[in-house]
Amino acid sequence: MDELILKKIDLEKYVWKDLPPSNGFKGRIRLLSGGEIVQDTMNRYNKGFQTLFFAFYVDLTSKHSASAVTDSWLSTTPIPLPTSSSDVAEWADNTFIVHKVVGPDLDLNSLRSELGQSIVPSKSGAGFIFHTHHAPFDGVGVKIVANIFLKEFASALGGAQIDKGLEWGTEMDNLLPAACDVLRPTEPIPIHPGSDEEPTFNHPFYSATRQVMQAFANSAQTSYNLKPRQGDPGWPTTHCQELTFSNEESATFLKSLKGKNGSYTVAHAAHSALVMVNVYDNPPSLENSSKFVSCQFLVNARQYLQEPYPGRNGYPGYALSVVPHGFPLSLFFSQSGDLLPLDKKMLVTLMRLARPRDIYNGLKEMPVAFSFMIPASDIFAVWLKQLAASGNTPDNTFRLSHDGAGEAFLDRHFQDSSGQTLPSLKKFFISLNLPDPGPYGAPRFLRATGACCASIKKSNFYDLPAIANISAIANIFMIHPQLPVYP
């Protein structure tokens, strides 16, 4: 392992480079870096693993004229745009998959399940809720893109001319750089191949990289997962189940997380409940008590980038750092060696370990907080490809995604140039395709509405009650009594 880490790296190889002109068209290309390459490897070799979805529901305050919306775009592009209803309909049919619903109820989850079985990129060129390969965007990135889109959408609804900064034909000049090429000056970087300095573990970059790789190796050796299941033989059928709490239930839930002995978040509860699902599904014996229910903490690493990228809308790409974390199985055993009940007391015990503050602070205190992802991801990508080639299914573990309150990256209301509120964000969800047996949980909420929402993905060969982790959260805090007692 050490020889794979102690390598000089030229970060210039991740810069966008010109492609030879083809049929009068220009293009640019760059190598994937960091977590991007891991996402691409998983997607290529594990049947759509990790394709990313982001969907949102928008309320309009009033009807708006189609002509005003059309006029706002016409002057921005030299390309002829459709103006008649028939031309617009023809363009839409050739450009989008339109999910038409008769009646007042629109269910984007059903569209997500339908699109989840398609391949990204699609051979037909199709794909939008926001359905994307995970390499160009992380969860924060898709929220930033959606927020920018909704701002432009509001301007168009108001009949205002679209931002003059949107100049057709300049797309290549505005390509987002790889995160590793816009690191803040204080973030250590690998030694350049042209340097006379030799890599050693006295160098902070290589020392931190080895520390993280050792942590991942230890996690893999001591990991205790869901019970073994047969891998999916074909392209998976995707499913997503959702539970929405009312404003009153959400208020009770959030209040219960703020206690005298510590303050917790929705993510802490969801993470801990997933750990309990793992133990419920695969009850450990006492000889496994030295193992851990492991999970990777995904860290939004934009704070380690140079200006203007750390800002709220600064980097709509992929900038995730990953640190392993495990819950010791010994917590689930009494002094006499019996399994303890999966109740509120157990959930709170796990939540104390799930609190990411100490983990995140530990990451901040490391001399290298993000750039270690470059060599670590290169090493993991090769390993993941070898596993896929040998027929191994992805890790039989749960995943959790949570970016905090929606307002952290999404505006609640969007205004036109006159200040009138036009569309308002009503609800959103983010989802990942995971064809492995493990569940994927994604709690989310908007502070303005006060309603919490939690969803969990299950694959077509996953036989646990997919709603179990949500029921655990709800019942343990006694805010949803109509759900069955967990487990």
From TrEMBL:
Pfam families in alphabetical order: Tri3 (PF07428)
Membrane-crossing segments per the record: none
Keyword Coiled coil: no
Any GO BP: mycotoxin biosynthetic process
UniProt keyword terms in alphabetical order: Transferase
UniProt-recorded Gene Ontology molecular function terms: acetyltransferase activity
Taxonomic superkingdom: Eukaryota
Stated family: Belongs to the trichothecene O-acetyltransferase family.
Name the UniProt record assigns to this protein: Condensation domain-containing protein
